[in-house]
Amino acid sequence: MNARQQLTGLDHYWLPFTPNRWFQDHPKILASAKGAYYTTNDGRRLFDGLSGLWCCPLGHGHPRIVEALTRQAQTLDYSPAFQFCNPETLRLADRVAAMAPEGMTRVFFTNSGSEAVDTALKVAYGYQRLRGEGSRTRFIGRERGYHGVGFGGMAVGGMVANRKMFGPIMLPGVDHLPHTWNPAHMAFSRGQPAWGAHLADELERLVALHDASTIAAVIVEPMQGSSAVVVPPIGYLQKLREICTKHGILLVFDEVITGFGRLGENFGAQRLGVTPDIITFAKGVTNGIIPMGGIIVREEIFQAFMGAGAPAHAIELFHGYTYSGHPMAAACGHAALDVLAEEGLIKRARALEPVLENAMHALKGESGVTDIRNFGLAAAVDLEPIPGKPGLRGMKVFERAIEEGFMLRVAGDAIAVGPPFISTEDEIARMGEGLRRAIRHVFQQGNAA
Ligand SMILES: Cc1ncc(COP(=O)(O)O)c(C=O)c1O
Predict the structure, then answer these.
(1) What is the mean pLDDT of the chain?
(2) Helix H or strand E segment including 220
(3) CATH no. for 20-58+345-444
(4) Which pLDDT band holds residue 1 (cuts at 50, 70, 90)?
(5) Every domain range in the chain assigned CATH 3.90.1150.10
(6) CATH 3.40.640.10 is right for the domain spanning 66-342
(7) What single DSSP character describes residue 386?
(8) Atom of ligand 1 nearest to the CA of 291
(9) What is the CA(257)–ligand 1 centre distance, in A?
(10) CA of 280 to the centre of ligand 1 (A)
(11) Cα dist. 360→50, 115, 266, 348 in Å?
């Protein structure tokens, strides 16, 4: 019997963001996980080189999280999100706000990054409307940006493949800043590229084109994660902040990947020294164990909704989810944030940054490697595509890395890594060498499909 015949469900399950026909022939089934390793259903141990999907920085099966979930299930498994709350969720809002940049005080919970983004866009527009600027209906995203798959997030996102099937039904009135990756000026940069701050001036051009009175908000990831680690040039985000402030445009940082330590500080905002008006978060808040997301907003945004003149018994924001602030997710969030603090894991992520940088940049010179980028505990390697078959080389390296014992992420012909904060220096070095072997193996095969 081959691997496919042994598996039930392959005839019924439609995998998200996956080439399903390829998967049918190359099924990858994970049976268990502990610490920084997964084990497949055929007993192979894989180093978790992308922390799940960027969401499990503390590793898997942490006893503290397991205990918190068990306790919460026995105490209060669900409480209605509307008109009621529970102590865990209230306390988690306090903790998340305490970790955020100064002045960002109010937390609204969702269940995913996509929901967080759509919530942020609705709150941004609602705020503009409440302050008498209802003509500001436009949002500005950025090429190569990823903001999830809701109707708002898809529209402000800038990854072409995610948009092209849905063009005719896209939220109108969206424009995009250019992305900041330019190999002529920044190939093989370590950390933030020195070139490119001027690309933020493109926002002035968009303001001149559309007029500030039509723009509600700009949304960017401080570091673009899903389009394979595009690192902001030095000074770029500061300029975006200045231009937004000058024109009354809200600045939203989508920190679904960068929040909770990936860049070596609580949020990317702190690492990069720029405070936005709204932060979106998800993934790391619960270490990915239970879905949870949310937004953090400046106090004056919250107060604009509270002070809109409606009677006290009237709902101020007609928005929310059945599972907003789910008590199980909140309990998981507390345990994850306890582990993050008590085990000093954000500092550890920062300390591992040069280790990852060296491991990945050591691949410079391998045939077919056209760029290497890194920032925080994240890095990416661009590979020369097979002519006429974009994405196939990346897929082959990804498959080969599994043979080598590493789970990485493939995005077209780029390989992205974001190891758990609990990784050892040795594990990161071994991941770099495993990727080297995978790249050599695939390039030795040439361009054959
Ligand atoms: C920056 C960013 N925003 C939003 C999302 C969407 O999050 P989710 O998949 O939880 O909906 C992601 C997911 O990777 C992301 O990286």
Answers:
(1) 96
(2) strand 215-220
(3) 3.90.1150.10
(4) very low
(5) 20-58+345-444
(6) yes
(7) B
(8) 10
(9) 7
(10) 9
(11) 14, 33, 24, 18
